[in-house]
Amino acid sequence: MGIENFNVHLFKEINSIAGSNPYLDVFMIFSAQYLIFIIPIYLLYLWFKKDKEFSLYIFISVIITLLISTSIGALYYHPRPFSMGLGTQLIGHASDSSFPSDHTTAMFAFALPFLFFKRYREGIVFVSVASLVGFARVFCGVHFPLDIIGGFIVAILTSFILYIFKKSIFYFISKATKEYQNILAKIKNLKN
To answer: Is the pTM here over 0.90, yes or no?
Structure first.
């Protein structure tokens, strides 16, 4: 069995459950579409918890990883399952390239830095959530399993490279944060 045949076979196995239980469908639709909002919510939480530098580091990780993911999607087109007449589609989606999954890429780019920085409790929770999002995207009929694996690979490689350069990134973040605070202080002084 070739890789593409395996990809289609595994998609059919996972997606075949869709439509059989309305409660499961609702849970998977929610997971596929809305769990990604954990990213901005938790980044804001970290920001206001006075963990600004780590919050910005993760933000940079997500943005760079998404840029790479969307670039891959622009250069290599792979049709989505519903574009090929496969499976049950539970959520609407444009018929653009399915590889890699941007939702999965963003979620893992968000989750993996917690593990790299030994914040294991948060990391394990968010990696689990990222895995659920990936599975739900296949379940809902908008991605193949290899799209999810591709998203994970893009995220782990990018996150690891960023971790190697963490000192430089945190130095840049620290300088930018101080400059931002200086600008705010100057604006405050002008008002007074």
So the answer is: no
